Amino acid sequence: MLCAGKKSYFAAAVCIITVTSMLAVSYMRLQRLSHQPKVIQEGRRCRGKIANSTITALKGNKTFIISPYFDDRESKVTRLIGIVHHEDVKQLYCWFCCQPNGKIYVSKAKIDVHSDRFGFPYGAADIVCLEPENCDPTHVSIHQSPHGNIDQLPRFEIKNRKAETFSVDFTVCISAMFGNYNNVLQFIQSMEMYKILGVQKVVIYKNNCSHLMEKVLKFYVEEGTVEIIPWPINSHLRVSSMWHFTQDGTHIGYYGQITALNDCIYRNMERSKFVVLNDADEIILPLKHPNWKTMMNSLQEQNPGTSVFLFENHIFPETVSSRMFNISSWNTVPGVNILQHVYREPDRKDVINPRKMIVDPRKVIQTSVHSVLRAYGNSVNVPMDVALIYHCRKALQRDLPRESLIRDTTLWRYNSSLIMNVNKVLSQTMLQAQK
Q: According to the model, what pLDDT value does residue 42 have?
């Protein structure tokens, strides 16, 4: 016996710790070995239909694949962003086809369902597989078994295989445009404010919107500002428009918002210096700087090693208006005129304002809506005197009298450029809409 003859409690404790450590190391080694890719076929051509939908349902096992991404930040893996049933999906395998030698490798996946599921049976998940060491696969297939015929499985292109130089400084990710979205004026104002503040790309996960909104999106796509990711999640799952589960038989919350946000981070990991996670009715307004670039330079200098910057949300009720900027040509456009809403609700006692984020996407592993779940580097709450989120929406504190609201005209700093730019967009999109 390893511990025979040891009578003192100290020696016994040392022995127990030593044996436990040895067993733990052995277990971890076995676990890693079980996930190592294994050759199961040789001399084969890579077949199988290449998936071209944003959301692909795997046959019969309650798993939906969005997209796989190469990730070598810790080890050489393929990380698939997906949606799974948190109880019923126990085992998945990655099938890699390596050309030109024609070897097919199978790698057991680690299924990591994100902790922020908010009670729904389905949740965002990372499906992570070690890649073959002597191969850089371009596609991967997913199956619940390590046996079968790869020809029958959909193949997914592995993105981010090649490192790129940043093409943009700021990309805004807007998850889940749904509900026949028709807040056209506020959307255009937000887009133009983003551009004034330094955004070059806005990625929108679109479920549905109004006909007029389609015209506006088409304009921004042709301009090169917007990238539309089709998001037909309700074709696969019963979706809720709420963020928390209410025993109503739905499968996933808020149109799969968390999955879309994670996909957006990985999609832009190699092409954008920063990724901004907020909604279309939210604008991060700098108070000490003219734009996001100078603001982020300052914040990074003051917070070395920080990869996640969180900005506090403040409600500007759309029911309380200023008489300023009542622009008659905008009155026929559906939606809210944010320039008329400069009264914000005061902080509520014992209620923490939610936050939205600007992140370094290369440092994020998993994100939720109001914070990251896993990341390299620190998170910092940005003080309100540096920037705040202007959030124009329905009031949360509906019974407050007007005199209890705080007049905040920070947005008016940009009024001249904003009005001119919005008028340009309206002159083109409204004319197209009338044709």
A: 64
Alpha-carbon torsion, ordered 323, 329, 330, 334, to 10 deg: 130
Q: 348 exposed, middle or buried (CB, 10 Å; 0-12, 13-18, 19+)?
A: exposed
Q: Report pLDDT for 8.
A: 61
Q: How confident is the model at residue 31 (pLDDT cuts 50, 70, 90)?
A: very low
CATH of the domain at 92: 2.60.40
Residue 147 located in a structural domain: yes
pLDDT band (50, 70, 90) for residue 16:
low
Whether 177 maps to a domain, the answer reads: yes
Do residue 203 and residue 74 come from a single domain? no
Token pair, residue 340, equals: 């008329």
CA distance 52 to 54: 7
Half-sphere exposure of 158 (CA within 13 A, CB side): 26
| 72 and 103 together in one domain | yes
> Do 244 and 175 belong together in one domain?
yes
> Do 123 and 190 belong together in one domain?
no
Cα separation values, 307 from 301, 371, 372, 381, Å: 12, 12, 10, 11
- State the CATH number of the domain containing residue 407: 3.90.550
**pLDDT of res. 165:** 82
In a domain, 1, yes or no: no
| Residue 433 one-letter amino acid | A
Q: Which domain holds residue 275?
A: 168-431
The closest of 67, 39, 129 to 263, measured between CA atoms, is 67
Q: Give the pLDDT of residue 19.
A: 55
pLDDT band at 44 (very low <50, low <70, confident <90, very high): low
Indicate whether 327 pLDDT > 70: yes
Among 130, 157, 184, the domain boundary falls at: 157
Is 104's pLDDT higher than 70? Answer: yes
Q: Are 433 and 215 in contact (CB under 8 A)?
A: yes
- pLDDT at residue 3 in the model: 47
How far apart are alpha carbons 188 and 225 in whole angstroms? 12
Cα(408)–Cα(315) distance, integer angstroms: 11
Q: Mean pLDDT across the stretch 185-189?
A: 98
User: Is position 2 within any domain?
Assistant: no
> What is the largest distance, in Å, between two alpha-carbon atoms of the chain?
94
